[in-house]
Amino acid sequence: MKSSGYRIVAIILPCPVCGTETRVEEIKMEEYTIYILRSEKTGRHYIGYTSNLDRRLIQHNEGLNRSTKSGIPWKIIYTETGYKSREEALKREKEIKSWKGGIKFKQLIEN
């Protein structure tokens, strides 16, 4: 499980003094993870995205999310990592949700 939703990106910039040498700057870039949970109580599935999977699973299992409160405990059964923007992650989350209950969804969680 990935506890932090960040990746480090190194950027090479011209030296501000001489202009020819380079220096490296590291920038933290937020990454998002798509996840699918299965309720161990009801067998129901929940699809979401987050930048911190560990924290989000704790929130689900502590009853802090209204839509998953009745299914505690939840277990992660599928993840996709590396989404570089919230919009990209949301688009993929909606795509997977549109498959829910269908053959594509079953194939995704069984592989």
How would the blueprint of this fold be written?
Elements: E1 6-14, E2 22-30, E3 32-39, E4 45-50, H1 53-61, E5 74-83, H2 86-99, H3 103-110
Antiparallel strand pairs: 1-2, 3-4, 3-5
Under CATH, the homologous superfamily reads GIY-YIG endonuclease
Radius of gyration: 19 Å
* Corresponding CATH architecture: 3-Layer(aba) Sandwich
Number of helical regions: 3
Helix/strand-derived category reads alpha+beta
Average pLDDT metric: 87
Q: What percentage of residues falls in helices of 4 or more residues?
A: 25-40%
Distance between the termini: 18 Å
CATH class, please?
Answer: Alpha Beta
Instruction: Write down the secondary-structure element order.
Output: EEEEHEHH
* Largest sheet: number of strands, sense, barrel closure: 3 strands, antiparallel
CATH topology: GIY-YIG endonuclease
Number of strands: 5
Beta content: 35-45%
Structure commentary:
Helices cover 28% and strands 38% of the residues. A hairpin with a 5-residue loop joins strand 3 (32-39) and strand 4 (45-50). It is elongated and about 65 Å long. The chain has 3 helices and 5 strands, in the order ββββαβαα. The chain has a single domain (32-110), classed as 3-Layer(aba) Sandwich (GIY-YIG endonuclease), CATH 3.40.1440.10. The strands form 2 sheets. Strands 4-3-5 form a 3-stranded antiparallel β-sheet. It has a two-stranded antiparallel sheet with strand order 1-2. It is of the alpha+beta class and 111 residues long.
Keywords:
111 residues, alpha+beta, GIY-YIG endonuclease, three-stranded antiparallel sheet, two-stranded antiparallel sheet, 3 helices, 5 strands, 38% strand
